[in-house]
Amino acid sequence: MLEPAGENTAGQPSVPRSSFEGRRSFLGALLGLGSCFVGALLSVPLIRFALFPLLRRTTELKNSPLGDLDAFSSLTEPVLRTIQIEQVDGWRKAVSEKAVYVTKDGQGHPLVLSSICPHLGCTVPWSKEKNQFTCPCHGATFAADGTRISGPSLRGMDSLETSVENGQLLVRFQYFRQLVSDKEVIG
Amino acid sequence: MHSTNKNDGGNPPRAESGLWAWLNRRTGLDDLLRTALDEPIPGGARLAYIFGSGLLFIFLSQVITGIFLALYYVPSADHAHTTVAYITKAVTAGSFLRSLHGYGASAMVVVLFLHLSQTYIYGSYKGSRELLWLSGCALFGLVLAMAFTGYLLPWDQRAYFATAVGTNAVSEVPWIGESMKRLMRGGTEMGTLTISRFFVAHVFFIPACIFALVASHVFLFRKAGASGPFNEDPYHPKQKPEPFYPRQVLMDLSLTALLIVGLGLLCFFVPLQLGPPANPADAQYIPRPEWYYLPIFQWLKYWHGSAAIVGVLVIPALVAIAVVALPFLDRGVERRPWKRPAAMGAYAFVVFTLVGLGLRSQYLDRHDPGVAQQLTKQKTDEDEYARKPFEPELSSASLAAENVTLADPLAAKGKTIFETQSCNACHGDGGVGTAAAPPLVGIRTKLSADQVAELFKHPTSKMSAGGMSPVDLPPDDLKALIAYVESLQ
Predict the structure, then answer these.
(1) Calpha distance B350→B328 (Å, rounded)
(2) For B264, nearest residue in chain A (alpha carbons)
(3) What is the complex's ipTM, to 2 decimals?
(4) B373-411: per-residue pLDDT in tens?
(5) pLDDT at residue A24 above 80?
(6) Contact B402/A19, CB-based, under 8 Å?
(7) Which residues in chain B touch residue A45, judged by CB atoms under 8 angstroms apart?
(8) Which residues on chain B are in Cβ contact (under 8 Å) with A19?
(9) CB < 8 Å to B84, chain A
(10) Best mutation site among A54, A91, A114, A116 for testing chain B: the one with the most B CBs within 10 Å?
(11) Is the CB of B82 inside 8 Å of chain A's CB atoms?
(12) Engineered SS bond to B468: which of A27, B25, B97, B463, CB 3.0-4.6 Å?
């Protein structure tokens, strides 16, 4: 393929090289530009295809039902509820269970707390005897409405977004950054 | 400028400045370009010669789209269909790229047929071009093998059953057929090993062969030289040559442009469909191959029992040998088609037979009420599946977690305790382990329930050092927690 055109073994007459110059190089530039343009155009779907995971949320959390709103109206202490959260990871989804507490805020409205300690992420159990949440890992304590009482945590327990649909209490589970004094969503 | 890197006369290379000149001195790029573009075409540029570079373009497009599809595709019976559905239904431009790859395969078969026909009708295989023809034949086989192996990969009903039939046909080859079928399938049945094999063939093995053969095909082509029009001498061309560039390049590019526009419009407006996932238990499904395999499919229907050896082996082998040996059998220098009635007759016969078989297959399908009805149903199922939104696959880990909850109420209670007591903070959800603590999965095989209970009350010094405190729970809860830990596997 790389042999000079003039020495072709098949014996074709050679093409004079001087014919390459001039008009042909202008056409060459035009073709080069055109090819670049078409190539750029064709690469648009390829780039969009490859960038898809960056432009769209790959992890999506849906609202999880907790039960009838009425059932929580007569709460005297926080109750533990296990919710199923569905996390979509590309073409697959993982269903995992998370524990949350349903309790009441100062005005008596239902309040849902994440059971994850804002200190270092342990699950905080409710202690009936002490009437407070006590983290088993480092001893942070919280009141029934999640406000911080004592211990190493820099903030109270994290409340979760709730909504009511057809009399059902729904909660949107989220993770929050630990070891900071302000609630900050991380996923 | 093209002679700057030649040092034959003992003169030092002319010192030109600039990046291009430097690159050129180091690589000889300029000479390479000239050699490529100044290829002499006896008798001048013609539209008849455009198919070779058209094929090269589609091959390139197949390579690029194929690489991108592999960003999301997983070759396993569990995930293949889900990932292709994800590409088609969820990923931006996914349906377009997959269509480009799928229709590109069909376009490649069409352009390959045109390229082969042009070579045959123009007698371009004559005149020291035996190896060029042979490499072309090998490429033809490899392209068909690419189409066959790629067809299975989406693992939908259509793909599964077409490949089941295709691999079954192989088993009709006497003596070694059954072994060949098992080799292709990776076992007696179609399964996840079949996908692995087809994937490796489609993505690594066959493309590597195609790259090597395309290189030798182009090399042999340049070595023998373009053959020119059919009134040209195949050995010693006499007609006035015209360089490949610019007119032939422009003609070749016009086919490329046509392919881009044609495939682009087709993929945009009529995207390639994906059917429901393969269901090997579906006894009703009527398999049909892709259109370019229909003639072979119909042909195989006529040969059964003891005659099968003739239809499956003898006749195809004779045709293949005749095609491959063509430049050795047909040594004459005559290239004008009307002076080669036998060659043209054979060509017409083969083409009419193939088209006839393909049409016959379609005709039979349409006129058998049972078959036509089932094929319509299959099409409806495909359309229906195509309209459904993408449904992600449930990961096996979450399935296992759910099973525990369902299986044993005591273990289910233990699971809640495991989570409320923050065991999962260190041992991970489902006891899979984290950097802070070892996994508990499979602990049943190492420790009995009593041993676990003992460790809960009195952790070893190593456990205490890692942050494990004694478990202080009411007896019932402790029992449940032990039941859960022992259930992890």
Answers:
(1) 20
(2) A42
(3) 0.79
(4) 999 999 999 999 999 999 888 887 665 555 555 567 888
(5) no
(6) no
(7) 93, 96-97, 100
(8) 243
(9) none
(10) A91
(11) yes
(12) B463
What is the four-CA torsion angle of A119, A121, A126, A132, rounded to 10 degrees?
0
> How far apart, in whole angstroms, are the C-alpha atoms of residue B260 and residue B58?
9
Question: How near does any CA of chain B get to the CA of A121, in Å?
Answer: 7
pLDDT at res. B8: 45
Q: What is the DSSP letter of A176?
A: B
Q: Is the confidence at residue B361, as pLDDT, over 90?
A: yes
Cross-chain residue pair B401–A5, CB shorter than 8 Å: no
Length of chain B equals 489
pTM, full prediction = 0.78
Picking from B236, B242, B425, the nearest residue to A11 by CB comes out as: B236
Q: How far is B189 from chain A (nearest CA, A)?
A: 27
Question: Cα–Cα distance between B58 and B43 in angstroms, integer?
Answer: 27
Average pLDDT of the residues in B55-78: 97
Highest mean pLDDT among B10-24, B57-71, B298-312: B57-71
Closest residue in B to A25 (Cα–Cα): B246
**pLDDT digit string, tens, across residues A54-82:** 887 655 666 788 888 887 877 788 888 88
